[in-house]
């Protein structure tokens, strides 16, 4: 959110609305077509793919690199070692789990 001061008292609803407005402005949304009475989905989209198991080798490093599903894990050892926190041993363990 911006550092622009809001008038007091400020409610939680006003803070959420200000954050939504700021996000929409950042995305440069120019046209919103919501008719009165329409339902608006505010939840995050459902994840696509199979989530990484809790005991998956290098899981923390993969998630830090934005890889959060088994389908998104690279199947090449050379590509895996380019991810921060994954070495050759962990890459071998990952490839073994994918096989």
The secondary structure category is mainly alpha
Low-confidence stretches are none
Task: Characterize the biggest β-sheet.
Answer: none
Beta percentage is under 5%
Mean pLDDT: 83
* Overall outline: elongated
What is the string of SSEs from the N terminus onward?
HHHH
Question: Which short descriptors sum up this protein?
Answer:
elongated; mainly alpha; 99 residues; 4 helices
Explain what this protein looks like in three dimensions.
- It is a single chain.
- It is built from four helices and no strands.
- By secondary structure, the chain is an all-alpha fold.
- The protein has a domain of 40 residues.
- The longest helix has 15 residues.
- 9% of the residues are buried.
- The mean pLDDT is 83.
Q: Would you summarize the structure shown here?
A:
Helix content is 36%, strand content 0%. The protein has helices at residues 12-26, 59-64, 77-80, 88-98.
Give the SSE map.
Blueprint: H1 12-26, H2 59-64, H3 77-80, H4 88-98
């Amino acid at each position: 959110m911006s550092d622009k001061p809001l008038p007091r008292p400020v409610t939680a609803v006003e803070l959420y609305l200000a954050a939504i407005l700021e996000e929409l402005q950042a995305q440069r949304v120019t046209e919103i077509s919501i008719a009165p009475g329409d339902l608006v989905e505010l939840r995050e989209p459902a994840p696509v793919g199979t989530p990484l198991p809790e005991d998956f080798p290098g899981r923390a490093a993969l998630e830090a690199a934005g890889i959060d599903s088994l389908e998104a894990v690279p199947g090449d050892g050379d590509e895996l070692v380019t991810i921060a926190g994954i070495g050759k041993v962990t890459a071998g363990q990952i490839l073994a789990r994918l096989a």
